[in-house]
C-alpha cells in the first residue's frame, strides 16, 4: 500500500504543468512502476534509456490530444495496480505503449506539416 501511495501522485499529469514537467512526471511514473514491481532488469533498461524516453515524451506531448490520452492511460494503469489487477495493468500498459507509438507517428506528421509551411 505504501508503494501505491508513492505512485498515486505520479500517475496524474495535471493540465497546469508545462511540457517539461509532464515529461518528468511521466518518466518518474514509469520508473516508479519498475521499482514497485521489483523488476530489476526493467529498472536498468529504463534508467539506461531515460534520456531517449524523455525526448520521445517531449515530442509526443506536442501532438494535439496526446497529453489527454496519456493522462487517461496513466489513470487506467494506476487503477489496475491499485486493485492488484495484474492482467488489467498489463493490458493497460500494452495499450498505452500503442498510444505512445501513435503519438510519435503523429509527431512526425506534425513536423512534416510544419516544415512544408
Structural summary, described in words:
Helix 2 packs across helix 4 (50-60), helix 4 crosses helix 6 and helix 5 runs antiparallel to helix 6 (86-116). The chain has 117 residues and is mainly alpha-helical. The longest helix is centred in the C-terminal third of the chain and has 31 residues, at 86-116. It contains six helices and no strands.
Mean pLDDT value? 87
- Helicity, as a percent range: over 70%
Whole-Å distance between the termini? 52 Å
SS-derived structural category: mainly alpha
What is the element layout, followed by pairings?
Layout lengths: L1 H9 L8 H18 L3 H9 L1 H11 L5 H17 L3 H31 L1
Helix pairs in contact: 1-2, 2-3, 2-4, 4-6, 5-6
What key phrases describe this protein's structure?
117 residues; mainly alpha; 6 helices
Concise account of the structure shown:
With 117 residues, the chain is mostly helical.
